[in-house]
Specification:
CATH superfamily of the largest domain: Response regulator
Radius of gyration: 17 Å
Number of helices: 9
Shape: globular
CATH topology of the largest domain: Rossmann fold
Distance between the termini: 37 Å
Structural class: alpha/beta
CATH class of the largest domain: Alpha Beta
Length: 221
């Protein structure tokens, strides 16, 4: 996989049940800035576990592969294995988008959002960063009250564990998740706070926000 800072060409595996979509995505990625190499593609998640697909930096995953039910179980398995996933779906569904973020996807894009957002999301994912396209910003904005972001149970759990721990590695061990998943949850929490007009770019700022919102007490720290 590419090293942090993109010292090597980013590679991706594209999983979609429509050949025309896979061809289009491959063209967008290879002709984007920076250019992204498509290491493998296919209509089944198994392509991400074998051959060149198993070592690709980013998994670009369509949620609906030949059926009406979203493949959230496959998304969960990929994230738990430490893979960096960008969900790319026809569905502009806030609930599904937020569910994918809870499971550890680094971004959720609709297929209406175009090449530029997909390239940016893929590059960010290769660096382990979340990316917020317009549709996802809308989902996150709707997932809050006027002043206090609504965090999922898992996000709250990660946040409190991080406050009580010396490192994110320890949080990952305590909760039985990967370090990239810990980082993803914390990034999503920061995005939610920023969109509520209460940015929290540092750990100290997040502690202050969490105390203000009653998520933790001083006695818990």
């Amino acid at each position: 996989m590419a090293e942090e800072g993109l010292s090597a060409v980013v590679s991706a595996v594209v999983i979609d049940d429509h050949p025309a979509v896979r061809t289009g995505v491959a063209h967008w990625l290879s002709s984007g800035t920076p250019a992204i190499r498509v290491a493998a593609d296919g209509d089944d998640v198994r392509v991400a576990w074998v051959g060149d697909g198993a070592t690709a930096d980013v998994v670009i995953l369509d949620l609906h592969l030949g059926g009406p039910a979203p493949v959230t179980g496959e998304l969960r398995r990929l994230v738990q294995a430490g893979r960096r996933v960008v969900v790319y779906s026809m569905r502009a569904d806030d609930a599904i988008a937020l569910r994918c973020l809870e499971l550890g996807a680094l971004s959720y894009l609709t297929k209406a959002e175009g090449a530029d957002h997909l390239v940016q999301a893929t590059v960010a994912a290769a660096e382990g960063r979340a990316y917020t396209p317009p549709s996802l910003a809308g989902a996150l904005a709707g997932d809050r009250s006027a002043h206090r972001p609504v965090l999922s149970a898992r996000e709250t759990e990660v946040l409190v564990e991080w406050f009580q721990s010396e490192s994110k590695d320890f949080v990952a061990q305590r909760l039985g998740i990967s370090l990239s998943t810990v980082n993803t949850h914390l990034e999503h929490i920061r995005v939610k706070y920023a969109m509520s007009g209460r940015e929290a770019p540092t750990k100290a700022a997040l502690v202050a926000r969490a105390i203000q919102d009653g998520l933790v007490r001083l006695d818990d720290l």
